[in-house]
Amino acid sequence: LERINVRIQMASGFFLLVLLALSASHALASDPGQLQDFCIADRTSQVFVNGFACKDPKTALVEDFFFSGLHMAGNTSNKQGSAVTAVNVAQIAGLNTLGISLARVDYAPYGQNPPHIHPRATEILTVLEGSLYVGFITSNPENKLFSKVLNKGDVFVFPQGLIHFQFNYGTNKAIAIAALSSKNPGVITIANTVFGSNPSISGDILAKAFQVDKKMVDHIHIVM
């Protein structure tokens, strides 16, 4: 009987340790909550952390929370006919740890913000001027396209990590403002990544993936 009680106690202790381990694992897998008023990014710090180290809050300046320039149109004279003016932690150090950023997107007539993803953020976009055809595609295996034409004042959401795009099908310029749920949302433009990687992905691999002739892949590599 005594041995049975000891085994029960050992089993209970082991079960408790498992629960504690699972709880700790869950806590570490979540973003930490805000533990202070702000954490201004110290871009000169040699400390490597997930994000940016904080500078001494006693040295905080109002400029750490300020950016000017979204009233200015971006230069859309490029192959895509669009320009993104980002306002994230790289522009406003005070955004560090706050989980939010902003961008202005300008579109020339028939310009586009090509298919891309934000690996670390959901995006919510509103049209300030003109009209845009926008959409996102769900993950495998459905790959369903959700798309809509947006006019001035309309709002659309692009879920985190999904391929999405915007296209100005009108003869006038268009302007949009996007808010993103990360201080540093990141961007991966699909065409640039697949056909412009360094070093390049093998043309044979891309030809098979896209089911096209390798000569076409080689041509795309040249023009990218």
TrEMBL record:
Q: What biological function has been recorded for the protein in this entry?
A: Produces developmental and stress-related release of hydrogen peroxide in the apoplast. May play an important role in several aspects of plant growth and defense mechanisms.
Residues in a coiled coil are none
Q: Which cysteines are joined by disulfide bonds?
A: 39-54
Q: Does the keyword Manganese apply?
A: yes
Cellular component per GO? apoplast; cytoplasm
Could you give a GO molecular-function term held by this entry?
A: oxalate oxidase activity
Any idea what this protein is called?
Germin-like protein
- Taxonomic lineage from the root: Eukaryota, Viridiplantae, Streptophyta, Embryophyta, Tracheophyta
Compartments annotated for it: namely: Cytoplasm; Secreted, Cell wall; Secreted, Extracellular space, Apoplast
Q: Give the residue range of the signal peptide.
A: 1-29
Q: Ranges for the Cupin type-1 domain?
A: 68-218
Instruction: Quote the record's binding site residues for Mn(2+).
Output: 116, 118, 123, 164
Give the family per the record.
Answer: Belongs to the germin family.
The species is: Aegilops tauschii subsp. strangulata
Instruction: Enumerate the PROSITE patterns for this protein.
Output: GERMIN
One Pfam family name is: Cupin_1
Origin: domain of life: Eukaryota
